[in-house]
Amino acid sequence: DTGVSQDPRHKITKRGQNVTFRCDPISEHNRLYWYRQTLGQGPEFLTYFQNEAQLEKSRLLSDRFSAERPKGSFSTLEIQRTEQGDSAMYLCASSPLSGMNTEAFFGQGTRLTVV
Amino acid sequence: AQKVTQAQTEISVVEKEDVTLDCVYETRDTTYYLFWYKQPPSGELVFLIRRNSFDEQNEISGRYSWNFQKSTSSFNFTITASQVVDSAVYFCALQGSARQLTFGSGTQLTVLP
Lengths: 115, 113
Known about the structure:
- By secondary structure, chain A is mainly β.
- Helices cover about 0% and strands about 50% of the residues of chain A.
- In chain A, strands 2, 4, 5, 6, 9, 10 and 11 form a seven-stranded mixed β-sheet that branches. A four-stranded antiparallel β-sheet of chain A has the order 1-3-8-7, with no helix packed on it.
- Chain A is globular, with a radius of gyration of 13 Å.
- By secondary structure, chain B is mainly beta.
- In chain B, strands 2, 5, 6, 10, 11 and 12 form a six-stranded mixed β-sheet that branches.
């Protein structure tokens, strides 16, 4: 299967701990996105990479959040000092570099529960 | 600022009924794209359709059809002869000059046997 892969699928952590999620995009896709989805809501944009460059960050991405995409391949999203409000589904998506006329392909997400 | 509104939170239909999901959007961009995604219980968002702002021609693809009306900023989605497997949350999304998608809050569709 060559779709977007996210790891882990589920993560339970204690408040105050740090967590890191990984996303492996579709191999030929240059663009990579992170979204956050809370229960009963649509996904909300967090950040966007084009190759290894982080081009945009949402105001939702507080200082406790950091994302990287070394070498323009996989990406990691780290949350430091987790809070209960961070509990959500974190979705990764990728798309090719060919203008706007492309759809984003999503992974199955990482569900984070902060207790 | 962009906004997508899906006023229908939940819809239930009996199998084989037709169902229309509503979507209204706001954007200041003159060029934009509209999308519908499906999210089954497994959680993965599945792409269904994309339309650009210059193409108001409506389309039918199998049991799916779309009605894009720029004058009313609406992009509605219809499933004909619904099936139990169509049960999922459906999201309408907008992509403007920014690369990211702005999603609506979703419509939970339940198709009863």
